[in-house]
Amino acid sequence: MDDPPASSDSSEFKSSTGGNISENEFSCHCCYDILVNPTTLTCGHNFCRHCLALWWESAHKNECPECREKWEGFPKVNILLRDATDKLFSEVVQQRRATIQANPQISRSLLAFQRYGDNLGRSRTNKHKGAGFFFSGVLTALTCVAAMVMVYHWSSSGVEQHTLLISKPVSHWTSEEVVSWLEHLGPWAQLYRDPFLRESVNGRLLLMLDDEDLLKLPYSIENQAHRRAILAELDRVKALGVKPPQNLWEYKAANAGKSLFLLYALKSSPRLTLFYLYLFDYSETFLPVLHTCCPAISHSDQSLESSFYMTQLEPNWQQWAEFLVKYLLLPYQLIAEFAWDWLAVHYWTSRFIIVNAVLMSVLEGCALWRLCTTAGIRFLPEMMWSHTWTMLSQGFVFAVLWPLVPQFVCNCFFYWALYFSPIVNIDLVVQQLMHPETQR
């Protein structure tokens, strides 16, 4: 009996046991072609390694593209399956490998995927050592900053008195407290300290003063800019009933919850926070920030006192244009510029804020670069809405819960965000710059 003719179908091969093996059994579940560098996940499904890398980069998930089961560890090439496909489909595999190597996008995705695995392996190997070293450094820095803050408060004079004025009604001020308020307006106000002391001007008399009283004896304030600055600040005192905060610590003492909220919100979402200030805290906070970061074009003869008065005026269109450009493109620069203006008052604290603003700008730039290079820009509206909703929900929870939290705990959160965010962000920036393609 003649032997049957050999099958002309090249997609089937006869195994040693007499069964037929088809190409479908060696095909990738993503591209449906012969497997190249087959990678087996914990769920049992096989994929080309470059197909898995492309899926990982676009989906931002460590899960199987077919059954959506999360894989454990870092997927490795299945050596037995790779050798089998190389023997059975050598020509097809060679052609596909040449095509893959010629594609720069696939090569970049494979490199990013492999670096992600190397990074994952290093982090597991050095987990305890790295974490211990990092947190020991954080604790050391915490001790140093705590000591600095304690020394600052112990060595500062008059801090308690100034803090008292932001909570004590102006009508109850003594003559010494009125002089303290006057001196706090600036060095120029020292010229008028003695007349206020001689006349024993207390809080009630202060509220009755007007421009004509300041011009004539016994005050004799002939400089019009000085009178305008005093009267402008006096109007704010009358409106609030107490002395308005004039530095970071006074603002924190007068608005404990708001200062903590703004500190975290400006770090996480500066654009939404500035918009919030525009809507709900325009005159007290937003206007000073805008005038500080985007000052009006001043004349050469404009004095410091008149510039103090100008911060309460409505900004012109040039200031608005400059502010909107910085608001949209460089929001953290606004924070840095505002902190720079207070460098003479808060020497070290302003430097911490400026460094943190620079680091946050770098992190935001890296995030935008990843969106552009990984074609994730199409998800930007969804990400923006998710971010907005997260900020609104967290702000609502904070507004409800912060009055119930002890002041000591609030202070711990405040100083942590103020002084230790730069330490954490330095580590994040280093990771971004060393392995930008592995950050997701």
From TrEMBL:
Residues 173-240 form the SAM domain. Its EC number is 2.3.2.27. Residues 28-68 form the RING-type domain. It is a multi-pass membrane protein. The chain crosses the membrane at residues 132-154, 384-401, 413-430. It is found in: Endoplasmic reticulum membrane. GO terms for cellular component: endoplasmic reticulum membrane; nucleus. It catalyses: S-ubiquitinyl-[E2 ubiquitin-conjugating enzyme]-L-cysteine + [acceptor protein]-L-lysine = [E2 ubiquitin-conjugating enzyme]-L-cysteine + N(6)-ubiquitinyl-[acceptor protein]-L-lysine. PROSITE patterns: SAM_DOMAIN, ZF_RING_1, ZF_RING_2. GO terms for biological process: apoptotic process; proteasome-mediated ubiquitin-dependent protein catabolic process. SMART domains: RING, SAM. InterPro entries: SAM, SAM/pointed_sf, Znf_RING, Znf_RING/FYVE/PHD, Znf_RING_CS. The keyword Zinc-finger applies. The keyword Transferase applies. Keywords: Apoptosis, Endoplasmic reticulum, Glycoprotein, Membrane, Metal-binding, Transferase, Transmembrane, Transmembrane helix, Ubl conjugation, Zinc, Zinc-finger. It holds the Pfam family zf-C3HC4_4. PANTHER family: BIFUNCTIONAL APOPTOSIS REGULATOR. Interacts with CASP8, BCL2 and BCL2L1 through SAM domain and also with HIP1, IFT57, ESRRBL1 and BCAP31. Interacts with NGFR; this interaction inhibits NF-kappa-B and JNK-related signaling pathways. Membrane-bound E3 ubiquitin ligase that plays a role in several processes including apoptosis regulation or reticulum endoplasmic stress. Has anti-apoptotic activity, both for apoptosis triggered via death-receptors and via mitochondrial factors. Contributes to the dynamic control of IRE1/ERN1 signaling during ER stress by inducing BAX inhibitor 1/TMBIM6 proteasomal degradation. Promotes the activation of TGF-beta signaling by mediating the 'Lys-63'-linked ubiquitination of TGFBR1 which is critical to activate the pathway. This is Bifunctional apoptosis regulator.
